[in-house]
TrEMBL record:
It comes from Panacibacter microcysteis. Coiled coil: none annotated. Gene3D superfamilies: 2.60.40.1930, TonB-dependent receptor, plug domain (2.170.130.10). This is TonB-dependent receptor plug domain-containing protein. InterPro entries: Plug_dom_sf. Keywords: Signal. Residues 1-19 form the signal peptide.
Length: 804
């Protein structure tokens, strides 16, 4: 069921009467404008494993959400990899497929750092607070260990937080605290609060991961100091925040199906605090508003119904009579509405050396799901710092670090919810700038959201509209780095010199040669700029060096070191492989694999497609046309009507017409029908959906590749100017050996720590069960299986199983 924010609740009751209406309608309208016009995106990335070594590939899958559902705001996502100092190692843009993206990064063999930092974001996210971009440190194991050093002394620090922002004199306030060591681990602290006379006025003790809470009856003009000890009994002193002489406090309590609140006003508070508003929001949308009269009584209580709200962070803010925010509190709502649980098991299990395994995932009938799966050696450990649930529901909306946030979603017990409330009390959350909103000032948009894939686009500068009309169009030759063939095309020029073709998606690095059709000399007097909207590499990134600390136990540390050393040994051995050996390996590839490497690129390479080698198929030479050749060869592809030169049969897949391509350039069905099969080397038929097609390819695609040795190749043309254009990061396929077939590579030692990685598993009611086959390595005897993903309506899953 779609999880939606509940309708606006305006509460009126005698105890919450408000005598005036000061810009309430304007405030509500501004908030609605913010929520609908400026949606916020959150990113989570699943990696295939927690730790890597130089030379290995980091495989990842990014999920992008907006509010409670997969994001439809952006079509592209950026992934930056940096060293520990923020120097950019890789800047890549990836296409979002079903609100997600998959990719990889090869760690340089010469990399000497102990970590790689990953930052992920959409262009739209750069318009807002950078604290909410995805940031994570990845541990890198180095073989050459430096001489052992004396362990560094980890120093603890403690911070104190008044529940709603300020400690007010004359009000018994609740003070939360969090104590952590400088390595990121929690510190269990205990101590006393003393006043300026040295008198003890309160005591405190950590109750969970260095956090706790205590009451304080603060006095005006008084300064308080915390005298406390860490776990080793070492003493410290830390001053508490200053006490305000007057004001408002907001207390929130967790009760079944609601959030109870108490608003207190000090006797010394100004008149603007006699009548206030309490506002509750989720994802920048209003869910509750009440008028509160504190003129006759110093405290007023109320309750907000939350049982119909989606799970996530609820923000409560108190405004004075002039709509100035004076108190704020966040609380987490857990209605257990966010989870879906596919069945995950093994139809065949082989934990022995190179044993065959069949992993089965069965998703409930009514759900359309987007999943990713990682199977690793169980001994290498797991990154417990975050998972898809805790990131998209919790840490993606918080500033500050949360220690092992996945823990807070282990169950829904009252004790765990109270512990999670300590996280709410000790972490900052300021997505909405209330002063700007009250004034009607919306966020400044510097970067428009990507609404389409990176396609061919640009503009001609330095010429007139008349010259544009005379030229008519621009002749282009696309020479892609990942493809030895060249494609030619032409694009029409608009009056202002702009041109575009949204059907031409750019991958990797493409050298584009160009010439003006009607006026070839124009190339010498104009400037042609190709701009597909990509952001340039930032060069260097600043990030919190103390964030995302990841801790391995000693057994997992040793297991990872073992894999790293064994893989380094194997890599060194294979460096001596002769050229003849490499040639033998190539001969073991199938004809279709060779053709795919020779012809296909980008989203057209690999994939779940039926491939046909027409050069070695006698039936191709006797076929009337391509459709006559394909008829009856692909299950689900219906080709009806007359075929042959000049005819246009009906081609249907799932009730729609697939996309057609020749040499990866989009064409219409008539061009496919007029293509002579004897000129075709290779055909790929992609079942729905095919994400290389413009608009998502809901009806699949048919890709035709003409023989490279047939027609005269497209040449660059002497003297043609050219520009280098960056596109999507090149695709790389995860290698999973098949020990059921003969392959020269099967003679090598198998020391993979990641046994299987599949980042893109899409299910629906027709295809709800997925069977995935993989083989064990030479040394693993137990697997860790992690399945993560989201459904179309925003439900999330995180399943972890250890198979022995």
């Amino acid at each position: 069921m779609q999880r939606l924010l509940c309708l606006l609740l305006i509460v009126y009751c005698p105890s919450l009467a408000f005598s005036q209406q000061i810009n309430k309608e304007t405030f509500t309208a501004n908030l609605e404008n913010l929520g609908t016009g400026f949606p916020q995106e959150k990113v989570y990335i699943q990696f295939d494993k927690p730790v890597y070594a130089p030379g290995e590939t980091i495989w990842f899958k990014a999920y992008i959400m907006s509010a409670t559902t997969p994001s439809l705001v952006s079509a592209n996502i950026y992934i930056d990899h940096t060293d520990a100092n923020g120097n950019v190692l890789s800047h890549a843009v990836l296409p979002m497929i079903a609100s997600s993206a998959k990719g990889s990064y090869v760690i340089p063999k010469t990399y000497s750092g102990n970590s790689i930092h990953v930052r992920a974001y959409t262009k739209w996210m750069l318009n807002f607070d950078s604290s909410f971009l995805y940031n994570k440190d990845i541990r890198i194991l180095q073989q050459k260990q430096t001489a052992a050093k004396a362990p560094a002394v980890n120093k603890p620090a403690i911070d104190f937080f008044s529940e709603s922002g300020d400690c007010i004199a004359g009000i018994n306030c609740r003070i939360a605290f969090k104590s952590v060591y400088d390595n990121g681990k929690p510190c269990n602290a205990k101590g006393t609060i003393v006043n300026s006379k040295g008198e003890t006025v309160a005591t405190f003790t950590s109750v969970h991961d260095g956090m706790g809470i205590f009451p304080l009856d603060a006095k005006a003009n008084e300064k308080y100091i915390a005298k406390w000890k860490d776990e080793q009994g070492k003493p410290y002193e830390t001053p508490l925040p200053a006490v305000k002489p007057g004001g408002i406090s907001l207390e929130v309590r967790l009760t079944e199906g609601k959030r109870s609140f108490i608003i207190k006003r000090s006797t010394t508070a100004a008149e603007n605090l006699e009548q206030v508003q309490i506002v509750a929001t989720m994802d920048q949308h209003l869910v509750y508003m009440a008028n509160v009269n504190l003129k006759e009584t110093p405290a007023v209580g109320g309750a907000i119904p939350v049982d119909q709200l989606p799970s996530g962070i609820l923000q409560l803010t108190v405004f004075d009579a002039n709509w100035v925010a004076v108190a704020e509190r966040i609380t987490f709502i857990n209605n257990n509405d966010y989870v879906f649980e596919p069945e995950v098991g093994f139809a065949a299990l082989g934990t022995s050396k190179r044993g065959k395994n069949t992993l089965v995932i069965n998703v409930p009938d009514t759900l359309e799901a987007n999943l990713s799966v990682a199977v690793t050696d169980a001994g290498i450990g797991i990154d417990s710092s975050d998972n898809i649930i805790s990131r998209l529901l919790l840490t993606g909306d918080l500033k500050g670090n949360v220690y092992k946030p996945g823990y807070y979603f282990a169950n829904s017990s009252d004790s765990l919810q109270q512990q999670l409330d300590l996280v709410m009390l000790t972490n900052g959350w300021r997505r909405i700038k209330w002063n700007d909103l009250v004034a009607g000032k919306m966020p400044v948009i510097k970067y428009s959201n990507d609404t389409s894939y990176l396609s061919l686009a640009g503009k001609v500068f330095g010429t007139s509209a008349m010259d544009m009309r005379q030229s008519g169009f621009l002749f282009l030759i696309l020479d892609r780095k990942s493809d030895s063939t060249r494609n030619s095309m032409q694009v029409s020029l608009e009056k202002d010199g702009s041109f575009k073709d949204p059907n031409v998606i750019l991958f990797d690095t493409t050298r584009i040669y160009y010439q003006f059709a009607g006026a070839k000399d124009m190339a010498n007097s104009t400037e042609v700029v190709f701009n597909n909207g990509t952001l340039p590499s930032p060069g260097k990134i600043n990030f919190d060096k103390n964030m995302n600390r990841y801790f391995l136990d000693s057994a997992a540390e040793n297991r990872n070191l073992y894999f790293a050393s064994e893989q380094a040994r194997l890599a060194k051995f294979l460096e001596g492989t002769t050229l003849e050996g490499v040639t033998v390996k190539a001969k073991t590839k199938s004809r279709e694999q060779i053709l795919d490497e020779q012809y296909a690129s980008g989203l057209f390479s690999g994939g779940n497609a039926r491939s046909f080698d027409l050069e070695n198929d006698p039936f191709a030479r006797s076929s009337l046309d391509i459709f006559n050749y394909l008829r009856g060869k692909v299950a689900g592809l219906n080709i009806t009507g007359q075929t042959g030169p000049g005819s246009q049969p009906s081609v249907q897949w799932r009730g729609g017409t697939p996309s057609f391509y020749i040499n990866e350039m989009p064409v219409d069905i008539s061009q496919i029908g007029s293509t002579n099969p004897s000129d075709v080397a290779y055909i790929k038929v992609f079942p729905p959906p095919f994400f290389g097609a413009f608009g998502g390819g809901a009806n699949g695609a048919i890709a035709i590749y003409t023989k490279k040795g047939g027609a005269a190749p497209v040449t660059k043309g002497k003297g043609m100017p050219s520009k280098l254009v960056m596109g999507y990061a090149p695709e790389k396929e995860f290698y999973s050996p098949n020990y059921g077939t003969f392959d020269q590579r099967n003679e090598q030692e198998d020391l993979r720590s990641t046994l299987y990685w599949n980042p893109m598993i899409l299910t629906n009611a027709r295809n709800k069960m997925v069977k995935l086959t993989f083989y064990n390595n030479d040394i693993t005897n137990s697997f860790r299986v992690i399945v993560e993903g989201v459904t179309k309506d925003g439900r999330i899953t995180h399943i972890e199983k250890v198979i022995e």
